[in-house]
Amino acid sequence: MDKELEGYVIYCKDLNKEIPLGVVSNNYDCQAISKYIPSRLKNFLVEIEDKRFYDHKGVDIRGVSRAIFENLKEGKIVQGGSTISQQLARNIIRDNKKNFKRKFRETYKAFQIEKLFSKNEILDLYFNNIYFGKNIWGLRTAGLYYFNKEVDKLSQSELIYLLTILRGPNYYTKNSKIFSKRYNLINGILFEKKLISKSRYQKNIKSKLTISETPLSNFNEHSINFITKYVDDKRKKIISTIDLKTQKLAQEFVKESKYPVSIIALKKGKVIGFASSYGTDYPFISKSNVGSTLKPFIYCNLRENGVLKTEKFDSFKNTLDWKVREVKYYKPQLTIKEALLYSNNNAFLNATGKVGIDSNLEFLSNILDKPKSDFFPSSILGATRNGISLYDLALAYSTFFNPDSLTENKTECLSILNEIFYSKLGLRVDNAFLKTGTTNENKERYAILGNADLVYAVLRNENKINDSSKEGSFMKQISRKVLSMFQNNKNFVWI
Q1: How far apart are CA 336 and CA 357, in angstroms?
Q2: Of the candidates 378, 375, 221, 199, which has an alpha carbon nearest to the alpha carbon of residue 284?
Q3: What architecture (CATH level 2) is domain 248-485?
Q4: pLDDT tens digits, 155-190
Q5: Cα(426)–Cα(57) distance, rounded to whole angstroms?
Q6: Predicted structure pTM score
Q7: pLDDT in tens, 285-335
Q8: Residue ranges of the domains in the chain?
Q9: What percent helix, strand, coil does the chain show, rounded to 5?
Q10: CATH superfamily of this structure's domain 9-206
Q11: How far apart (Å, rounded) are the C-alpha atoms in residues 494 and 430?
């Protein structure tokens, strides 16, 4: 996506309600940007934090003089005397150390801010950059996190709540009595200065605030193209294709895994959930060899090109004279159905050799929508020149096995993958499929599973020393989480 989306809020729709998921951020900070900051909130802030804001040039000499006297007396920083511009500078610098060097940097930055921006612009910058605890930066993010509301939907008491916690978000949110004392103090000051009415003051005091603490994630910009329905630039908002339940499941799957893991879910070709131990962009930009997960496509091509179901191929050696690793040996000769069930490499190489390697490589090139130059003979076993991303793999399955374009050979292939589903997961679901693959000496383990509507692609990275079997606890991990999303649909059975 060409436009700058940093700070946009990502939403999904759940039961016709828009639910905030997180923000576009290329770093650790969860920071949403808002073009709208209520004027009354700006007035409240000036009265509470910096009464002479409109008179000074970044530093309040009277406030600083008082602070310097107290700090010299104590021999350390005990008072700040910071203006709004200085507080903004501190949040931009991201330095909260209590020493004179930090104070000097903060003051110098405040002077720069005052030269570059108007007072109103400074207040906008302040509310877009100030820290609200829990890795939440900016008023908009705080409103979404604490109240599950956009800025323009926040009540006055909710705005004052956010003002109350400004000086120490984690401190005030964890100490209800201390919070109440400061909240009431701020209300009293605003009433005394006639910034709120008496009735409003009384309502604020009696108000029972409901804190939601809505989880918000950081979405790297490289993932945005893949999940966007439309972008509202005016409100800096992205409506995504994400399904809330699926996204939560994906995040839990990653959080609960003892190994680094990535997962992505597609429904009818659209991304509805994804997560990774390596960041939200990983399923889309990280590419590697995908092992035996390409064999179902090759199976269909072999059948289309005349390989019979009864025809058998050597499973111990291949015509290319390659030494390939096999999980175990079953019979000296296998049909391609048996080769797919057992994931036998030699039999597949021999079958593709009969049809022609180039025919299969061109077929894979079309399925994965990649240049023919990306593929070479070992692509039959899942290797490509530039690798395949988890998203690419999931999309290929979702598109190729689309119920609206099933052929007899695809249906036949799916029935074999259904057998694999049952044999590995122990669950009989008539319309579900599964294919696994391992690469890099078992350090990368893939699983592609799905049904008529839904496809999951999972990649687990690990050290084989910790889990020496071919699939180890991988299938147990999948069965604990992902299988809850599959329903036994008797109206769609692969035969």
Answers
A1: 16
A2: 221
A3: 3-Layer(aba) Sandwich (3.40)
A4: 999 999 999 999 899 999 999 999 999 999 999 999
A5: 71
A6: 0.89
A7: 999 999 999 999 999 999 999 999 999 999 999 999 999 888 777 799 999
A8: 9-206, 248-485
A9: 50, 15, 35
A10: Biosynthetic peptidoglycan transglycosylase-like (1.10.3810.10)
A11: 7
